[in-house]
Amino acid sequence: MNQMANASKLLDELNERSREVFRRVVESYLETGDPVGSRTLTRGLSENVSAATIRNVMQDLEYLGLLDSPHVSAGRVPTENGLRLFVDGLLEVNDLQVKDREMIDATVGANTPDVQTALDRVGAALSGVTQGASLVLAPKHEAPIKHIEFVGLGADRALVVLVFADGHVENRVFTPPPGYTPSAMREATNFINALIDGKTLTDIRRDITAQISKRRQEIDKLSSDMVESGLAIWDDEDEHHERLIVRGRSNLLHSDAAAEELDLIKTLFDDLERKRDIAEFLELTEEGEGVRIFIGSENKLFSLSGSSLVVSPYMNSDRKIVGAVGIIGPTRLNYGRIVPIVDYTAQLVGKLIADRS
After folding, report:
1. pTM value?
2. Dist CA 108 CA 349 (whole Å)
3. Which among 19, 206, 249, 334 is least surrounded, fewest beta carbons within 10 Å?
4. Domain 145-238 has CATH 3.30.390.10
């Protein structure tokens, strides 16, 4: 809200000519990626003014920090502050195109076997429609658990299997405590299943330490270590990696990209590969419903690459935010087209999650 108010105030301080020059510079840059010169602008302005007059206006806008000159006499490009002002005060969001909606709708059909597959298809369609890299943060599976089983796979490998009340099954390989025995594994299985009582995995993880301490005489240390290490695997960073679906990285590579732009894209790829602090991706959306746009350094997840992120949360049937969808790419995104695409996709995924919960 403060950003919108600041944008409105600054736009009010610009006269009509400055506002039009600024808007046309940004729109041309977003379309072509090239600096915009004064002679180019004189051909499209609503009033007949000289190139010299336009240059003076552009110098004023540069002084305000809204435009920048990448090279001497090479025209102007918007700064990050300029792009923010444009997005908050001048951006015209287009209606969702029918062909874009149909392409996204086609990914979520009745024959989709499970939510994870559906979200993977949504991510692929989103990157295909926008020609950017799509990010889909899948929800954690929070159905009540029906049964947990520990299975030995060898001296230093074991499997923990979770069977949910809705029939969903997940399993993870983990390192059991040294010297574990089949009897310790059976004891751990019996102990934890006695505590389940229709709880979700989050509930169990929250209660388990207290229960082990409280009922220490009922379970030996080896079995308690088995329980704790088996459940801890769901807090491992790999679980977060599995939740973030990234599609369309290759869309960001263009043969005509400048060397410095390719370096930024490489940095972005490195960030996406690490997928660190994925929880922050969801935090970006927690200030309310709807699409949010993060430009360049505003984007704390991928700020080093100078990328823009257009992201929207989606909710479950209880109106709780459980995930997010977004598009990431260079700051020269077609925001007016991408915003309604991301918004529609988030609503579609929310309905998918609610229908299948």
Report:
1. 0.72
2. 9
3. 206
4. yes
- C-alpha span between 47 and 333 (Å, rounded): 28
For tokens 């960073």, name the residue. Answer: 237
Instruction: Give the list of residues 6+ apart from residue 179 with CB closer than 8 angstroms, or none.
Output: 222
Burial pattern 181-195, b for ≥16 Cβ within 10 A else e, equals eeebbebbbebbeeb
The token pair that represents 238 in the structure block:
């790999």
What DSSP string runs through 49-83?
--HHHHHHHHHHHHHTTSEE-SSTTS-BEE-HHHH
Model pLDDT for residues 206-227, shown as the tens digit of each residue: 777 677 666 665 666 666 776 7
Q: Using alpha carbons only, how large is the chain's radius of gyration in Å? A: 26
- State the span(s) of the chain assigned CATH 1.10.10.10: 2-89
Specify the CATH class of 2-89 in words: mainly alpha
